[in-house]
TrEMBL record:
Name used for this protein in its record: Protein transport protein SEC22
GO CC annotation terms, alphabetical: endoplasmic reticulum membrane; Golgi membrane
GO biological processes: endoplasmic reticulum to Golgi vesicle-mediated transport; protein transport; retrograde vesicle-mediated transport, Golgi to endoplasmic reticulum
InterPro entries per record: Longin-like_dom_sf, Longin_dom, Sec22, V_SNARE_CC
Organism lineage string: Eukaryota, Fungi, Dikarya, Basidiomycota, Agaricomycotina
Organism from which the protein derives: Botryobasidium botryosum (strain FD-172 SS1)
């Protein structure tokens, strides 16, 4: 079942809205909510638009649409098709209600009122066995997207990849700096070599020019 949902701006990880969770749920998912914040910070323009990240007994599913990340924490056994159908419902309604305002918002949780729609939609997706007999869920089931191509990762892989990217970025900067130093040193060595090679010739030519000038002028 869907346990908790957060919506954030993709460009800077600013939280825009979140489900209101009870104290027990908040305590149970404390670690996974921290992981969700990490995911928001790791989102880049090259990130997969849909991804499921496994972490212990839960899976964090996220969807990116129009510079907004919709992320829900669900039990690992919860069907991915339902999780992404739920996120699709949120993205459509959120875009209709707040889409033009997203880029201008400066304070966190500016759209806290969206929790009403999230809570209502989450209840619809809560019990897949009971919901399957409801006509509205039958309609949603018919609209479910094929998720076979959705990227699946685990939290350890995400942490490792992020650490590697950070280190690779630092290494790349260091290599560029060192490369520039080597290029400057190479130019200086080449210049010194040319100077040593042609300085005597230049000196002799200059000497003859002085003699010629003194003799004829």
């Amino acid at each position: 079942m869907v346990r908790s949902t957060t919506i954030a701006r993709a460009s800077d990880a600013l939280p825009l809205a979140a489900s209101v969770d009870d104290e027990q749920t908040d305590q149970q998912l404390q670690e996974h909510k921290q992981q969700a914040k990490l995911i928001f910070r790791r989102i880049t323009p090259n990130s997969e638009p849909r991804c499921s990240i496994e972490s212990g007994a839960y899976t964090l599913h996220y969807l990116i649409s129009d510079n907004v990340v919709y992320l829900t924490i669900a039990e690992k056994s919860y069907p991915r098709k339902l999780a992404f159908s739920y996120l699709d419902e949120l993205s459509k309604e959120f875009a209709t209600s707040y889409g033009p305002k997203v880029d201008d918002i400066r304070k966190p949780y500016a759209f806290v009122g969206f929790d009403t729609f999230m809570s209502k939609t989450a209840r619809l997706y809560q019990d897949t066995r009971g919901a399957a007999s409801e006509s509205n869920m039958d309609r949603l089931q018919g609209d479910l997207q094929d998720v076979t191509r959705i990227m699946t990762k685990n939290m350890e892989e995400l942490l490792w990849r992020g650490d590697s990217l950070d280190r690779m970025s630092h290494l790349s900067t260091s290599l560029r700096s060192e490369s520039e130093k080597y290029r400057k040193a190479a130019r200086k060595i080449n210049f010194d070599a040319l100077l040593r090679k042609w300085a005597p010739v230049g000196g002799i030519a200059f000497f003859f020019l002085i003699i010629i000038w003194w003799k004829f002028f």
